[in-house]
Specification:
The protein is α/β, with parallel strands linked by helices. The chain is built from eight helices and six strands. A hairpin with a 6-residue loop joins β1 and β2. The chain starts with a strand and ends in a 16-residue tail after the last helix.
């Protein structure tokens, strides 16, 4: 475990590493934004905790990799605003609409800390576990060499179907449509 602090905002982030990550070969990696409700409280409203668990399992199966755990709760709006967004979602807003109703952009996450974290750890090329093409583009713009995007689709359940549809439809996440998403045909 390696700790990092952003000078500009004093946010603290960690990197969990396993195995030899400095041999020059692309490293299996996940940049994971903090989600207290999903990661620690096992919320079924999102897929965050499921993705965190699967990323750690994938790294363990491979025997080497890195997880960058970034302190940017609620797509960057913070925990208390995320709770406010949850209340708006309970009244019918989707995750994007809720953030916007609170006066925020749909996604305020900033990945600029990732490059110095990876450089400090001697990682030059990664295989990124994500479904988010915006994350891939943001990291590539910073000069991070992403040799492969590894999909990480886990945790779909009846409580997050609308959330996942919103991620795909409004935020551009690359998610497979599952047969369960369709209304059953009766007749």
């Amino acid at each position: 475990m390696h700790g990092f602090e952003e000078e500009a905002n004093k946010k603290e982030h960690i990197a969990l590493t396993m195995g030899d990550i400095t041999d020059g070969e692309p490293v299996l990696a996940r940049t994971h934004s903090e989600c207290l409700t999903g990661d620690a409280l096992f919320s079924m409203r999102c897929d965050c905790g499921y993705q965190l668990d699967e990323a750690l399992r994938s790294i363990a199966r491979e025997g080497r990799g890195i997880l960058l755990y970034l302190r940017q709760e609620g797509r960057g709006i913070g925990l208390l605003n995320k709770i406010r967004a949850y209340h708006l979602q309970d009244q019918g807003a989707d995750t994007v609409e809720a953030n916007e109703q609170l006066g925020f952009a749909a996604d305020l996450r900033d990945y600029s800390i990732c490059k110095p974290m990876l450089e400090y750890l001697g990682i030059s090329r990664i295989r990124l576990m994500t479904n988010n093409p915006r994350k891939v583009n943001a990291l590539k713009k910073m000069g991070i060499d992403i040799v492969d995007r590894v999909k990480i689709e886990v945790g779909r359940n009846p409580h997050n179907t609308h959330y996942l549809a919103t991620k795909a439809g409004k935020l551009g996440h690359l998610l497979t449509t599952h047969q369960d998403d369709e209304e059953p045909v009766v007749g």
